Amino acid sequence: MLSSLTISNVALIKKETLDFHKGFNCLLGQSGAGKSIIIDALSFCLGAKSDKNLIRSGETSMRVDAVFVDVGEDVKQFLNELEIDYDDELIISRTLSVDGKSSLRVNGFPVAAKLLKNLTENLADFCGQHDSVGLLNVNNHLSILDKFIGKDAENAKNEVGQILEQRRELDKKIASLGGDETERERTKELLSFQIKEIADADLAVGEEEELKERFAFISSAERIFEVLSDCLLKLDEQNPSVTGALHDVKGELSEFSDFKDICSCRERIENCYYEIKDVVDVLNSIKDNTDFDPKELERIDGRLDLIKSLSRKYGKTVEDILNYQKKITSQLEELENSEEMLAKLGKERCEVDGRLQEACKKLSRIRKVGALEFEKLIMAELADLQMSGTHFKVGFAECEPTKNGADDVKFMFSANVGQEVRDLHKTASGGELSRLLLAFKNVMRGRDNTQTIIFDEIDAGISGHTAGKLAEKLFNISKYTQIICITHTPVVASRANRFLLVEKRVVENQTISSARPLEGEEIAIEIARLIDGSKDVSQTAIDHAKKLLKEALT
């Protein structure tokens, strides 16, 4: 629910913080005092289209901060997906400057306007004489009915969605084998060519690295032969040589083999001698096989060029190329067996289509049963609001299956007895829509996720017994959902449990609107002002206001 709203430099409001409570919050004040500015500021903060004309005259920017507490699990999940921390409070801040620049932050994190709308749609709902257009949008009707029905509709829709996903996967497989026969043959020829090209190359993993090393060795063959010859001369061929010297030293020290330390040194020299002899043998072998062979170099160079060419077409590495070969081999096999596979997939799709049809029928049956109860409750609400001559019906038509099933739902309405029901947007007047909206909200209380509902003069043009019923319905909704209401109807105001007075005054030649909570006798006086319709209220009006407040408690 909305805990507080801080408004800075919005229209007539300089700086104001309003605290709201659970239940029924009522905004009172004379016409033009600035009540609608508060609603506009909240709407702006929650993602409505920005309007530079709202910036207070003489200021360069405006800012609104809304603090929500006890948010629902869906809101918490959305915050978690955005990786935004939540700890008891959700703070939404929005600014707008005269140059049109705007910023949005949720708990200090910048958020795009589109994401903000997704976040706030379950936080607050704005309802008024002109906000009832949501009822006129046929696209909303199915969602409203499903919310009313609840879990049964949700579970049935999930089943439809799962079957649709299975059908989409089958369609992808069918499409992969699709095209006419000519197209399939063309694809088969291309795949066959690619498979043969890779197979003819006879590639091996690790081959490219070995070829590059061999290429570098042959390219340096002359220098390698020269260096190895010199090293072998010094180690074993010239006189004196390293191996010869070690051999002589080893023999001379053997005379003193009885002496432990000398014997140890002799053994170490002997080990060195045999180690160097082994090195000499290896270097001799390398030298004997070191030959600059232009043909071998050309062969390796050509092989590397082939691998490079294939890597440009089929993958960066030899391993990638071989994996690609496996993939297209499988694809070719599927194409070669496409008729058999298409027949099999077509049979599977028919089976899935049958299941989808049954799932949609099941969902439709659930909706039609729920619609009867929905119609009954809406009609009862309308009767309470002195619209007993009207008729409301949920119309059904069949459409192509989607994740929402195969029902095209729209609300139908007739304002007079004997008049045929027609599309709601074609027949309901503004006043009728206001009461319809209230009826919907009352029927849907506790069934949707909206935590705060703002009613902006929804009672305009309503009086007498109807106003009393309207007040009762607002109060009923406030048991489940926080309500913030602007009203000029005394009986409606009397049902509130939190009152805020919006006043306009002139300070240093500037007009400023402000708001403050009302307590005790002040509440009765302000409701009496609604009764008298003047600045100076009579005692009779005050007594009547107190009577209304007392009746609201019973």
Describe the structure.
It is a single chain. The chain has 554 residues and is of the alpha/beta class. Among the domains are: 182 residues, 3-Layer(aba) Sandwich (Rossmann fold); 36 residues, no CATH class. A six-stranded antiparallel β-sheet has the order 2-1-4-5-6-7, with helices on one face. Strands 8-12-13-3-14-15 form a six-stranded mixed β-sheet, sandwiched between helices. It has a three-stranded antiparallel β-sheet with strand order 9-10-11. The chain is elongated. It starts with a strand and ends with a helix.
Radius of gyration based on Cα positions: 43 Å
Tell me which CATH architecture of the domain at 1-123 and 450-508 applies here. 3-Layer(aba) Sandwich
- The oligomeric status of these chains comes to single chain
Could you give the distance between the termini? 26 Å
CATH homologous superfamily designation of the domain at 1-123 and 450-508: P-loop containing nucleotide triphosphate hydrolases
Number of strands: 15
Low-confidence runs of at least 5 consecutive residues? none
Strand content: 15-25%
CATH class of the domain at 1-123 and 450-508: Alpha Beta
Strand order in space, largest sheet? 2-1-4-5-6-7
Tally of separate helices? 20
| Biggest beta sheet summary | 6 strands, antiparallel
Give the overall average pLDDT: 84
Would you give the CATH topology of the domain at 1-123 and 450-508?
Answer: Rossmann fold
Shape: elongated
Question: What fraction, in percent, of the residue positions are helical?
Answer: 55-70%
Briefly note the structural class of the backbone. alpha/beta
